[in-house]
Amino acid sequence: MDTSQVSLTHAHLRTPRAAAVAGIVFSVLLFAVFGLLRLSIPGDPFEPGAWLQGGLTYVTPAMNLVPFAGIAFLWFVGVLRDKLGSREDQFFATVFLGSAFLLLAMLFAAAAVFGAIIIAFRATPEGLEHSAAFHLGRGLAYAMINIYLVKAASVFMVTTSTIALYTRLTPRWLAIGGYAIAVLLMIGSYYFDWSLLVFPLWVLLVSVSILQEEQAKS
Fold it and tell me: Assign residue 210 a region: left if phi > 0, alpha if psi is -120 to 50, beta otherwise?
C-alpha cells in the first residue's frame, strides 16, 4: 500500500461518521439487551428466582449481545476523542474515558453474573432457586446495573456534555439536555426500573446529530 492509500484510509477512519454509526449500533443493542432481560427477569431484586423455571429464551441472547454493545461503545468513544483532537482537555478527557471504562466494566460484570446464575441453574436446577447463592448473585447484578453502572453513565454524560459545550461537538440544546438527563438518571434509578434506557437514548441522539452534521457538510 503506497503513501496516498495510507493517508486516504486514515482520513476515512477519522471521519466522525464512524462515531455516529457506532453510537447508533450501541444504542440499538443496549435497548435490545435491557428489553430482552426485562421480558424474563423481574425488576424486584428480592424475587425468589421463579423466572429461572419460566424459561431462559430471552436471557441468553441478551447476554450474547452485551460484548457487541461494548465494542460499539468503545468505538464510539474512540472516534469522539479522535474528532476532538488537540481541543481535548486533559482533565475532562481523563474523566470522560475513565467513566466510559467503568460503565463497560459494570455492564460486562453484571452480564457475567447473570451468565453464572444461568450456568449454576442448569447444573443444579433444584438447588439454586431460593438459595443464598442465587440471592447473592441477583443482588450483585442488581447493584452493578442500578447503582454503579447508572452513576458511571451519569458521569459520562456530564463530562461529554461539558466537552460538547466548549468544543461545539453537538448542538447546545443536546449538551444541556445531557446534564438534565444525567440528573434524572441519578435520581430516577431509585424509583424507575426503566430509567437507565435514557442513556442509550441520549447516545442515539448524539449520534444522529453528528451524522446529520456530516451529511450537511458533504
Answer: alpha
